[in-house]
């Protein structure tokens, strides 16, 4: 397990991502070839931690209920998950799963913003989050696709003021209207972005491995992005800065 990096991730900074999959072994094959990840099984095989050059970068989690969505989830760092969950509820969000210990790794909770976009909280103990990011094959950005970006800016701006606007801000987190890239009926959601050196080449790899292109490459203020799904239907984005 990586050393504690709690001081690296201020409250409101994306510090971890995981994918809820029906078939973790298939996920290992897909992401292992796409991003060059290796894996260590944790908690008797209930999830696999993905490593890039020996450093933790993500996890693949076996779904306990087949009715749950196949999705990537972004975790925001916090020193106190219980207090943050209370603030989220007070601001109009919902607590889907109250803060609970994840063994000796940390404390986690699943929450939503007022529009229903799902995200997670992570209060670190032995596992502080990413050991590597902003490099090819690792987390690079999280974009919230919201129906009301002004309301989203107000909610997250109040919730994560220092991380988004403080003197040492490193948000790795933006907001955009759902209608910018998706059909009007798409619900508000977070889209996890992974860095790649070459978006067209990565798209070829995605399709070769059984995934598909959901949104072809487009330009943003933070780089060139394409939205894809893996071979089990989990959506994520490829980003070339």
UniProtKB/TrEMBL annotation:
Pfam name, any one: Glyoxalase
CDD domains, A to Z: SgaA_N_like
Gene3D superfamilies the UniProt entry points to: 2,3-Dihydroxybiphenyl 1,2-Dioxygenase, domain 1
Domain VOC: 13-124
Designated name of the protein: VOC domain-containing protein
Source species: Streptomyces violarus
């Amino acid at each position: 397990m990586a050393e504690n990096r709690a001081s690296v991730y201020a409250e409101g900074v994306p510090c971890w991502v995981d994918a809820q999959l029906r078939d973790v072994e298939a996920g290992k094959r897909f992401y292992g070839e796409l991003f060059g990840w290796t894996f260590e099984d944790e908690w008797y095989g209930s999830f696999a931690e993905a490593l890039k050059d020996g450093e933790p970068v993500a996890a693949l989690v076996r779904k306990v209920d087949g009715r749950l969505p196949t999705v990537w989830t972004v975790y925001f760092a916090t020193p106190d998950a219980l207090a943050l969950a209370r603030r989220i509820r007070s601001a109009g969000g919902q607590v889907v799963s109250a803060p609970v210990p994840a063994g000796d790794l940390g404390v986690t909770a699943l929450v939503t913003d007022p529009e229903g976009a799902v995200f997670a909280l992570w209060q670190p103990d032995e596992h502080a989050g990413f050991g590597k990011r902003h490099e090819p094959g690792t987390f690079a950005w999280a974009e919230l696709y919201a129906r009301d970006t002004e309301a989203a800016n107000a909610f997250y701006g109040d919730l994560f003021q220092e991380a988004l606007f403080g003197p040492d801000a490193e948000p790795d987190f933006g907001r955009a209207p759902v209608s910018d890239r998706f059909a009007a009926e798409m619900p508000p959601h977070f889209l996890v972005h992974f860095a790649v050196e070459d978006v067209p080449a990565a798209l070829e790899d995605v399709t070769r491995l059984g995934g598909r292109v959901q949104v072809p490459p487009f330009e943003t203020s933070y780089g060139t992005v394409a939205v894809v799904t893996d071979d089990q239907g989990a959506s994520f984005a490829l980003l070339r800065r």
